[in-house]
Amino acid sequence: MLITELKAKETILSLVEGKAFIINCHGCREIRFPEKEADALQQELMAAGKVTGSITTDYICNPENLKLRLEKHAAAIEAADTVLVFSCGVGVQTVAEMFSGKRVCAACDTYALPGFQGVTPLEYDCKQCGECYLNLTGGICPITACSKSLVNGQCGGSKNGKCEVDPDMDCGWERIYQRLKKIGRLDVLKCPVQVRNYATDDEVSK
Amino acid sequence: MRITELFDNGEFVVTAEVGPPKGIHVDHLVEEAKTYLSGITACNVTDNQSSVMRMGSLPACVALKNAGLTPILQLTCRDRNRIALQSELLGAAALGIDNILCLTGDHTKMGDHPGAKPVFDLDSVSLLHTACQLEKGVDLGGNPLVGEPPKFAKGAVVSPCSDSVDAQLAKMERKVMAGAEYFQTQAVFDSEKFIKFMEQAKQFGKPVQLGVIIPKSAGMAKFMNRNVAGVHVPQEMIDALAADKEKAKLGITGVEIAAKIIKECKPYCQGVHIMALGWEAKVPQLLELAGI
Ligand code: SF4
Ligand code: SF4
Predict the structure, then answer these.
(1) In chain B, what are the domains?
(2) Which of A113, B22, B107, B122 could lock B126 by a disulfide, CB 3.0 to 4.6 Å apart?
(3) Nearest CB to B186; choose among A153, A156, A194
(4) Cβ contacts (< 8 Å) between A201 and chain B: which residues?
């Protein structure tokens, strides 16, 4: 099972640059989603005139499904500067890939609980690290897309865009760099030094 | 002596790399270093390089120090978590080892124990940050140290000829922000690329040592091109190595190639770092040819 928890309110408010389109995923049954808290925060953003539209749906980790649901919101998404996603890490990655030219932000952290995991498509993976890094990495998960789960940038092992560990795997940090460049957010690479907190990590907390 | 003091004095700093043995005797390592490397500024001692298990870097550093050389402790994040890494740093400082080089480290799968657990609790950036914390008298958990804090010359690495050079520069900047005071580079075989890289890297204001490998043969060069990240030996150098088999066997062609690269890059960097890979004996000749 997974638990998603809202990031700190100040963090979420600081993520919204300009206006936001909001996607809530109430997802699969394996996830506990902080509905009430999310709703209160979104009301606040709406009252401040910072929301172009929102949708509450499920299984956003399925790109086909998500595309269909978002069809009628195309104009509102177009008008938004930020797409703010309230879901597990897989959901955010799916949205970030779909709108790879837009700023897509994770409003939640994803933790693990013993039991089933949600429906995870093969392309995206989330290890429920408990402090979602997607806002610092252009929506590509550094924990699963990098063989060493590095959170402070590329190691010296990338060759021809591939990872030193597996020549069939793209280097996650090369992908992250290229994504950030594409969305004009290379500045996030200047964020403070990240040190992981394994007390909330899947493997340790189990 | 911290090598940052030399950079501060505007000295051109020459370092070379040595690897501890897969065994318990360091005499050979110390003898070689004394014979061939006593003319240079400092010796990097690798930390289970390429994820191949060997004696640790710290005891070999101490042996070199006792022999009158200046060692640089390489420290990777592959095998130890933040507790063990900090503990190692305190131990190093206690033994008078005050030059460090902080690396993420190769993945365990690359070495001779591919089933080992890769740790990577910290990485090169957070390790540099951790060393800075210790210098301030607090550990990474925020707990105070007892007594005088350690003081290190904190180095890091960067790969100027990587095909991901922009991502490398971004990482270099993070390392500087985290406390890196000097850089050693991955081996360079393309002076032009290095000079271009330095145009970007000089904005960070930290001394950079050009990384040099003496190519031993055409076969070795081709192997590196296929397998070593950030290393690309141009075809004309491979041809030169292949053309004169006899000379290449003696190492002369390789030494000439390396010396040429040093000469071309010298005006743009603050030192050289030689990865001799067993050819320590050629280092004096290389430095002479390069005019250092
Ligand atoms: S950074 Fe990756 S592992 Fe951590 S919560 Fe986000 S998607 Fe999941
Ligand atoms: S090569 Fe890229 S994906 Fe592989 S460990 Fe290094 S940074 Fe991570």
Answers:
(1) 3-216+269-281 (3.20.20.220)
(2) B122
(3) A156
(4) none
